[in-house]
Every structure is written in structure tokens, then in C-alpha cells.
Amino acid sequence: MAAEENTNWSQSVTGIVIREGKVLLARHTYGPGKGKLIVPGGYVKWQESPQEALKREYLEETGVEVEPVDVIGIRFNQKDWYVAFRAEYKGGRAVSDGDENSEVLWVDVKEALVREDVPDLTKKLIQSALSGKQMSHIDYKGTTRYGEYSFYGFV
Predict the structure, then answer these.
(1) 81-132 tens-digit pLDDT
(2) What pTM did the predictor assign?
(3) What is the C-alpha separation between 19 and 108, in angstroms, rounded?
(4) CA atoms within 13 A on the CB side of 51
(5) DSSP annotation of 100
(6) What is the four-CA torsion angle of 138, 57, 28, 111, rounded to 10 degrees?
């Protein structure tokens, strides 16, 4: 199946990675975010979990390996949903993919929250990651008809 056919255009993910007081952001090259510093992320492929999608998207777009930890936000409407994770840096060197972004930067968190080239949603996601509030993964066994469930809630 071609990449386009393997994409679930109604499900997307992002993650906030903060390391040593800096957040990883990428300068987007297209669409409404063109020229802006945004958090990496993207669409979930069919048969892929949101957590797997986040790991794949970060590695593809930034060269950085991450591990999703907690859910810090969900944006949705009648058409689609977008899950935001707090994620841990696991390794790799931040580099542009030369396609979806023109540069990848570790930006001081306080600076990111006031920069004009950082969109409001990215700022809100950073603030959510810093708040200390999150939904944590809770083991849950349910039907596996459509794949294994993931449940995040307050503990």
C-alpha cells in the first residue's frame, strides 16, 4: 500500500520534548504553519498506534528518538482528532528532514513562549507539558478486535 493510502487523515499526534530547559521545535515549510516553529508530529498510519506514530514522526522529521510518556492534551472536532503527548528524549541529534521543516532547534522554553514565530497552539502545548498535569497510561485489557486499546487517565 502506498504511503498516501496507508495514512489515516483523521488521526494525528504531536509531542512536547523538553530537555535541559529547552523544547524541540521545527520550522515548518508548508501550509498554515509555514515559516513557524512548531512541535513535530503528523498523521497516524493505518494499523499504527498513536504512540508508534509519534516515535516515527519525530525520527523522520528531526532525527531524534522519543518515548511518549503522558497525554497532555487532545484537540478534536467532528472531523478529526489530535493527541498531544509529553515525550522523553531518548537519543539522536536534532536535524532538519529537508522536506517538512527547514530547521530543527532546541529553543529555551521561556523564549518559545514569547516568540512571534511560535504559534498559539504550540505555546499552549508547551504550557500543558510544563503544568505537571497529565493523563498517565493505565493498564487496561479490552477487546482487541481493532487492535490493543490504550487508556490514559488521571491517577
Answers:
(1) 999 999 999 999 999 999 999 999 999 999 999 999 999 999 999 999 999 8
(2) 0.90
(3) 9
(4) 14
(5) S
(6) 40
Q: Which residues lie below 8 Å from residue 152, measured CB to CB, with a gap of 6+? A: 70, 71, 135, 136, 137, 138
pLDDT of residue 2: 57
Reading phi first (left if > 0) and then psi (alpha if -120 to 50, else beta), residue 7 is in: beta
* DSSP string across 49-84: -HHHHHHHHHHHHHSEEEEEEEEEEEEE-SS-EEEE
Which residue has cell 512571534?
Answer: 116
> Model confidence over 4-16: pLDDT tens digits?
789 999 999 999 9
Torsion angle defined by CA atoms of residues 51, 54, 55 and 61, in that order, rounded to the nearest 10 degrees? 170
